[in-house]
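so i finally got all the pieces together for this one. its two components total, 1590 residues if u count the protein bits. some of the lines might not be protein, just check the labels. i wanna see the whole assembly predicted at once instead of chain by chain like last time, that was a mess tbh
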Amino acid sequence: MPFACLFVPDFPIQAIVRLEPELRGKPVTVFAGAPPLTKVFAANDAARKLGVTASMTKMQAEAFIGIEWRWRSLSQEATAQAALFDCAWTISPRVEDGRWNKEEELPDTVVLDIAGCEKLFGSPEKIARDLERVARSAGLEANVAAAGNLSAAICAAHGFPGVAVIPAGEESRWIGSLSLEALRIPLEFVGTLKRWGIYTCAQFAALPEVAVVERLGQEGRRWQRLAQGCGERPLIAKDFPDEFEECMELESPVELLESLLFILNRLLEQIYARLRMHVLATNEIKVTLTLQKEDARKKDALLHIRTLRLPVATKEGKFLLKLLQLDLEAHPPSAPVTAVRIAAIPTTARSRQLGLFLPLSPDPARLEITLARIQSAVGEGRVGSPALLDTHRPNAFMQNRFELREMTLQHAAAERTATAAMRLYRPPLPASMEFQKEKLFCLSCEGVRRQVLAFAGPWRTKGDWWSETSWARDEWDVEIPALRPKFQPTPEEIRQEETALYRIYKDLRTKRWFVEGIYD
Amino acid sequence: MKYVELHACSAFSFLEGASRPEDLAARAAELRLPAMALLDRDGVYGAPRFHLIAKTAGIRAHVGAEISVEGFGNRAGFQPWMPNPPAPRPVRLALLAKNRAGYQNLCRLITRYKLREKEKGTGTAARKEIAEHAKGLVCLTGGEEGPLTASLANGGEEQARKSVEELVALFGKKNVYVELQRHFDPLEEHRNQAAIRIAETLRLPLLATNGVRYAYTHEREILDVFTCLRNYCKLDTAGRLLERNDERHLRSADEMAQLFSDLPQAITNTAELSARLNYSLADLGYEFPRYPVDADETMDSFLRKRTEEGFRNRYAPKNDADLYARAERQVQRELALIEKLHLAGYFLIVWDIIRFCREQNILVQGRGSAANSAVCYSLGITAVDPVGMELLFERFLSEERGEWPDIDLDLPSGDQREKAIQYVYQRYGRLGAAMTANVITYRGRSAAREVGKVLGFDQEMTDQLSTLVNSGEWRSPADNLGNQFQQAGFDLDHPRVRKYWELCERIQDLPRHLGQHSGGMVICEGQLDSVVPLEPATMPGRVVVQWDKEDCADMGIIKVDLLGLGMMAVLEDCLELIPQHYGAPIDLAQLPADDLLTYETMRRADTVGMFQIESRAQMSSLPRNAPAKFYDLVVQVAIIRPGPIVGKMMHPYMRRRQGREPVSYAHPSLEPILKRTLGVPLFQEQLLRMAMVAANFSGGEAEDLRRAMGFKRSERRMKEIEVRLRQGMTQNGIRAETQEEIITQISSFARYGFPESHAASFALIAYASAYLKVHYLAAFTAALLNNQPMGFYSAATIVKDAQRHGLRVKPVNILHSEWPCTIEMARDKKGNESQCLRIGFRFVRGLRQTAAEAMIRERQKQIFAGIDDLAHRVPELQKSELVTLGEIGALNPLGETIHRRTALWQVARATRPAGPLLDGIPEQLEILPLQPMTDEERLVADYHGSGMTAGPHPMSYCRTRLAKMNVKRACDLAHTPDGQYTRVAGCVIARQRPGTAKGFVFLSLEDETGIANIILNPDFYEENRLIINREKFLRVEGILQNQDNVISIKASRVAPVSITAAETESHDYH
């Protein structure tokens, strides 16, 4: 009896209910999709009985009275899956994700090798009951099946509710009583089989093997073996998680950054030691600091999470520690830290051959530290490379992450035309405008009033009328005596009255005026 | 200061303009613009509508177009440093017609490059072609689509100057205007300044326009939606493809003067140029072609001879001297009028088409108002004797009306009609004849789908919505778009959903693209392309004019409708099948006139498949009307129409017909007119005659009245005519209350009423179809099935109906079926040989005709030894096709022990290549592991694979169970007393909600014995909407009504009933 399988029906619902136990027993529906494209993604039995079906719109589902609804949470599903793995790991170290098609199926199945566990945990039935109990304690109502082979265990978990222990040699009979859907084979196959009048696994299993291969190919044979309760596939144990994690529960809460950095340094050293063993580096580090709770009644932990993403993979613990220090200085935790968890996403180490005649580019690690320093000085989201957005909206640009391009030899640039440049005031300066004969006359801004000497405009833009972010404004370019004097004017400039060209605009929705920038 | 907008595009620029031409003209009138020019993209699509509305609004409508040209580079794109540059598009020249020569040149130029284009909307005019057609045209340098902008962007001011010089060389100095537009865009102003400098140096006049794309500012939103549809993107991602602001609307003279206060000459030049544009569409120069006759003949004399020949052939055999004399007088009167109106050529051309069809054995029949003409009857254009039936000629042609007559020819749909169409092209040349266009506009469903797409709603949701829109004619107050949105699960409180809904409403009726009218052809003396531009149609070998049928009629272009009628094709097929399988040929013109069996069948309302009298409403009225002669059938065809129903004429007629109400007349003078219809006006001709007799209208005036009350009804004109009607009736001494009654009668159904001539033409076909069904059921059913989809019922219902009438129907068979359904001779149980129907491969879902034909060819060479042999010898057959054939039992004859599952089992092996080593090795297995299909599985497979079953009706399998539940069969209802609470069940074959039935819904439930009719009142329907619309099999309970043998059940309970999972079909809300 070497394999057991845990399967969580209505997984998206259960992933939520395990964190909100008060929903247990109630009709629950999970929505997915951004509004107004929201649809029912999953519904539990109680909700289905009321008439809710998958792919109903949110509005249709909400018309049913007494239904609790939640948004689909991938992170909760991921943690539910992790919890499911944890359940399995309580019995056996050899655990595998039990999905045939990992991209299309939900992460609701886990299979484990229980060979040799009898001495530790008892009979397969006891192990199955233990697994069910452990899963329940983790908040998951799982079907548990134990069988002589991996595939039979998975099929049985999908097909039989509760606990099912298939005695050795009985796999074929047990699985045979299931419908084809329990096999989770592609719908196209199911369609063909149903056309043949085959509705159960037993009927499928009874077909002559050669004939099945002739008609459905080797894949068909594989599915038939499943229906026969046979399993050829070995369990491929999950050897290590996708991320390297280290964590430390602190005996007493830590308040000072220096002390915290000491702990962080030790954890990073461990992670890097493990990474080095696998000849790996990391380009993403996630630090989760569990904070001391002010209100002990709160169940959920208060976390302070910082993620550092690096442009290049690194194996340098010290460099990362410096980055972490800068980041935590800019974003200190709001309460003393009680636990620290660091997760590193592993990646292959970077290797690059530099060209002999190429100019030396800055060291990426040092550049990253420099950028981090600038960011801690000017604020988050204010460092990067601007990229224009495709819209008529004024000032529409996005901030891309600044990345150092590979240096190449550059030839002399082609002829460049001079263009006027404008310095934008961020935020724009509120102003007011006086008119004379329906023309711009005087601009008041920052407490000074300036006569408009010349102007061009208005230039009108209106857009995004279909959304809540619609805009409409009129712009002018105006020449007025300078609002702010030059820092060090030359004697000639002092003698002349200093004028400047400004871009001003009127927000047509709020009817307010602004000075947006000054032309150089 | 006067201003004329000389550069405007309408929605007929297809996705590049957002207002209809009518709305632009109306807005121009509102803004008091004295004139306006419409320049649509690559065509003059909207010009007729613009012209007509402008005329009534009192503004001058100039004609022009934006022409895509090559040799001037591509349109200026966005700055190179900006992201997502759009695809390159050619520059467009804005051209205005100065005179008729200019208009003709414009039409020819467009036709030239349009006919050349390989993909719709991609044609461009070559520089040489522009030079050839420049005479009479004025060129504007254009806005952002124009050559000036393009060359400024591509090569700077010098290049721009050169391109303007080139325009001057092409069109002449006086005919080039430097166009300025101001939409509050700095880049545009930068271009304007360069344009002003260029105009100064070349001494060219400046011209202000607003590059109008819509009438009102808010219509910019529609234009943005169109832009997304054109570029296959969503509003959220369209970026700078969208409008920068909403300034491209029509502006008043004051606004424009203010906008161009620094350049007043640009405004004054618009009025000056407008004064130079002397052309309007009133001066179209259209001429109908002459029919070629010998030198010693004129068209009139030739027509007279042909008419007299035909007249003798038609009337002499009738042996009725009085009729002959009356007909002769009528023909002479008509010929005189035709001569006076110079219409002989038109009649001869139609006669020529008829002659061609006869020579080619193509069944053809004229209908519509042409059947009012004795000349048409004599020439063989129509088959209804207008003199014998006392039809009104003025309905067809009148001197006063000054309109061209309209002749519709019904032809068998499909290849035969195409032959006739190609004959017309061949006779008058590719540039002498063309199909009229059909402007496809945004309707409920298309609007819901496309707007949803643009706003980013997913396909599933928009599909859900579009299935809810437009279902059925009847609109209850709850059937508005808002409710449909809610039913589809949209939250109208969400701003984006609200915008979706709003845009769907606003986009309705705007042109989407140009299609081809089903049969309208226009023909022209000389070159049609100088009257209206021509375009290639999607169908190869066809060209289409840029105007639709109505526009052509409004512009006085004569058209001949060559319409495809499914039933004509059925009759034609019958003419071929009957001699083959019944021994003797039949002649449709010589069918027995009063066949008792045919009329008896009609009176029983046993009319599934018969032309025009098979609908549920027709079936309900047939037992009451009880047709016994041909004229009864004419009435029958005409009476189930919105006109008589809305005008409340149907029930009085039926009561009088049954003798339950005395026949009376509103006024004694109306008796001769209304006698045949028992004092109730049913036909348009009667309406005209009533006006003529009661109010002294002339024939032309009466026809005017009909038109005034027709589709394009105008309140003002109706009032005017009503006053004249009353005056006339007062003169004739008709009392006020009688006047009121007559006016109500006239106005209530003028809009929808059916012309008697039209009804008579249809009745002829209806009678022929009924006669053939009654006497040649196998041939008629085969022909009907081979011309599906047509008519009111699905193929499954037609087959079941034929089976109930004793026809043996054999299923699809790989060894015997052909592509169409065929007739086979077979012995029945008594040993008598009779015709039976073999279902053809055309009903096998997913089976391609080419594959079926390849299989038939191979079968003729040698019979198939088995399924392996079939799959091996016919590689054209794909796996899915073989699976479907196996599933419906078509492969069973390929072996003695083969049943459907065996076939599927063998197909699965035969279609999976085993490789060269194992190929050809027969299967070792001798015992088949699969069970034969059960009855239910067979039903499911039949309906899934062919949409029908040749076996028993699904209901028959459950009859015992249903009988225990007290469910009656359809055939039992005739013996059930009126008023008894009754329970029936059946497969829903039709759901209807006619616009005239005040929200009542009608269901037809079919069982193995016939069809039961169910009536659902509106409230009951709303309560049970989901069950009624979703379930395929229903059990209905209610009071049985049997009124004059019209049997129906007024539903008081409805429930789904589990019969089969087969995918039966219902013909709903059409």
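The mean pLDDT of chain A is 82.
Chain A has 15 helices and 21 strands.
anyway lmk what u think
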